[in-house]
Design a protein that fits this description.
heterodimer; A: alpha+beta; 4-stranded antiparallel beta sheet; elongated; B: mainly alpha; Cytochrome Bc1 Complex, Chain C; 74% helix
Chain lengths: 166, 222
Amino acid sequence: MEPSTPEDVSRRGFLGRMIFGLGGAIAAVLGGAGGAYFLSPAFKKEAEDWVDIGSASSVKPGMPAKMEFVERKRDAWVTTERRSFAWVLTSNGKDFIAYDPRCTHLGCPYRWDSDKRQFVCPCHTAVFDVDGRVVSGPPPRGLDRFPTKVVGGRLLIRPQPEQVKA
Amino acid sequence: MKPLIDWFCDRTGFDRVWETLFARHIPEAKGPVSWLYTLGSASMFIFTLQAVTGALLAMSYVPDPGHAYDSVRYINEHVLLGGFIHGLHKWGATFMVVVGVLHMLRVYFMGAYKYPRELTWIAGVGLFLLVMGFSFTGYLLPWDQKAYFATAVGTNIAGQTPVVGPYVAKVLKGGSDLGAATLTRFFAFHVLFLPALTGLLIGVHLFLVIWHGISEPPERKS
């Protein structure tokens, strides 16, 4: 490459290019950082909030247990606590099902009728069987479930209800 | 691109605006002295930086005693590059004062404030006072121990003024105690009143700088 002569690059031209080059670099760094900061909510992964609701062995097989828990929800810099409960069921002490305690019709809390072995909702006389299926009444679908897992003998749920496909 | 630029310039006279703003004559200074002429532009760059990073920070900041500290922590720990943007704003604030003062010293020692540029100097002093206002109000916003007690000291100093002091302190604090009302007040000043005034004064200052041109460096008496 030929060495550049003063005619090729004037002082003015050089400084002009420096201004736009460095200015562009600064704008790129600022724009990139600021843009990433601004757009980051679009790429943020939601945290999986498992809640410990009690000992797994406290649920007797075949008998739905009402288990209360406190859900700690992080909303950016605000942490809110919500008391709630779930109906937990197990057939073998290893696999657990946790039902959202709200009726799928209009969200009323239902109860367990141990004589009939059915969940009954007082609001509009909805009835669900022990597997959460609709027996009678207006609900559009069976009981919603919370994902469950057992870690070290403790029963954990994720208190975001999931619909069960019919 | 060229036809578009021509179309634009034809309707706005922007080529002449560009010439007036950027292709104007500036003093011929040599060596290290020439760098002193960059301090004004540097101050304005930092102001722009503060405006941009400040707007970004305001997206996740709450001026409330219950949440201010947690929202700042949220920015630093949970927002992508939040710590970087916060850091830029914090260091930008420091350099705003440093570069602004250096700019004033350059103008003062070169006698550049003299006729006909007195009004430029006065606008500049106004801008310096606004920077002090930004520093004072911005320092409270993180709502940590340092912020709280620095503002307690600052408002107590204001309270020492004879006769009007106690009233000035109450107006600053939005009440007799430093608390929630102080934080919202300082926030409003920091993000609404002061930026508006600063924009206005920068306009005046820059208009006068271009109107009068930049003064030559003083010559040594032979």
